Amino acid sequence: MAAKIVVVGSFNAGLTFKSRRLPAEGESILGDYSVSEGGKGSNQAVQVARLGGESHMVGCVGRDSYGEMAINLWRREGVDYSYVRISDEDHTGVAVILVDERGVNMIVIDPGANYLLSKRDVDEARDLILSADVLLTVLEIPVETAVYSCKVAKEGGVMTIFNPAPAQPILPDAFKYIDIMTPNETELKTLLGLPPDKLAKVGDLASKLIQKGVGKVVVTLGEKGGYVRDGRRGYAFPAFKVNTIDPTGAGDAFNGALAVALAEGMNLDEAVKFAAAAGALTVTKLEVIPALPYRKEVERFLEERGREWKVGGG
Ligand code: RIB
Question: Is residue 249 within 6 Å of ligand 1 at its C-beta?
Fold first, then answer.
């Protein structure tokens, strides 16, 4: 039976501009434009489905053409959207994404209807959440909704993965509902109330999250790989070296794949390797949805490149 994953998260239409370089302050430059589906929650739900998971989305979109774009995507990708609310109160979320030829990006998001997703929506999806193997959530929806979804899942014995992106602080009370937290370095510092430029060892910061009540921490560090910390040990893991065209969505691929792997019963070390392979494949193509890999691609990649994976001490 397929691993069942519920994503409580966001959808954004992604307006991507690819240009030779990023504009400077006050400057206008030319670039190639495309519009496609995005939003961290939806990307993760699609990644789950492409890896063979039973994928369910809980979210909120506006009654507009980008909302229709979301529904069409989920229908096409086999993501269940029975618990996505269509609202007249706000527009569907939109992200403007600038990418340069080195593969460096900048993103501005107007969350729109994503910010209407409430505890009530989570309560309506309670039975679905309690029947899942893993609950995955992100911070492109209100923090209290994301935390509440973890509370509902955790109290019902469902594993929770909390991807704290984009960076926002959460109340101290919330950490105990999180089995696995997946911040990047900036998000990790924000969660601990530190400025982004604070110099500190990632391993030490991850330990502080464990002390606050999080079960396990997987820090993603882009091309530098990442760091795993649980109550007993910590270690650095590498990134697979690939040709980066567009890094957008790599974190979503990582989180979706991590959820599938853990729901299927892989241990955390195997799951992180599987997730890193999905993330690496995603950066090799422009935009997100065209780039999120299918199960066979990840398995082939791991057959060919898996031996490069050597975790370090920490
Ligand atoms: O993580 C990538 C996503 O972040 C993009 O799809 C964009 O919508 C932003 O939400």
Answer: yes
pLDDT in tens, 90-126: 999 999 999 999 989 999 999 999 999 999 999 999 9
Whether 252 is a known active-site residue: answer yes
209 is in which domain, residue-wise? 4-20+34-304
**Residues contacting 259, CB < 8 A, separation 6+:** 3, 5, 7, 44, 48, 53, 134, 136, 161
Structural domain contains residue 220: yes
Q: Of 144, 177, 176, nearest to 160 (Cα)?
A: 177
- Summarised one tens digit per residue, pLDDT across range 31-57 is 999 999 999 999 999 999 999 999 999
Smallest CA separation from ligand 1 atom 6, residue: 38
From 80, 90, 246, 252, the catalytic residue: 252
Kindly report the CATH number assigned to the domain that includes residue 142: 3.40.1190.20
Is 59 a pocket residue for ligand 1 (Cβ < 6 Å)? no
Note if the pTM is more than 0.90.
yes
